[in-house]
Write a structure and sequence with these properties.
Elements (H helix, E strand, L loop, with lengths): L7 H9 L4 H10 L4 E2 L6 E7 L5 E8 L5 E8 L2 H11 L1
Antiparallel strand pairs: 1-2, 2-3, 3-4
């Protein structure tokens, strides 16, 4: 099981988007395959659903010790949800 690192800053950032840390963790843990963002800072992106069915996008980095540091999470847009459903088939 992955370890997650939380601090006041990233918890508050998620809260501004109405996302709880547990929801972001659920999406990361259930992800089939994280996608690297095309940036030099090693950020990863996952789309997924929480156990309650909420569709989220989560961006995270892996620390040197493979601890997951979530830096952003938000609800998927309507268009993203459509793409997500097509990819899951």
């Amino acid at each position: 099981m992955a370890e997650f690192r939380w601090n006041e800053r990233n918890v508050e950032h998620l809260a501004r988007h109405g996302v709880r840390p547990e929801e972001a963790q659920d999406v990361v843990m259930a992800a089939r395959q994280p996608y690297p963002l095309e940036r030099p800072d090693d950020k990863w992106l996952v789309w997924g659903r929480t156990p309650s069915g909420r569709a989220l996008q989560v961006v995270f980095v892996l620390d040197d010790d493979d601890t997951v540091h979530v830096i952003h999470a938000r609800d998927l847009t309507t268009r993203e949800k459509q793409r997500y459903r097509r990819r899951r088939r």
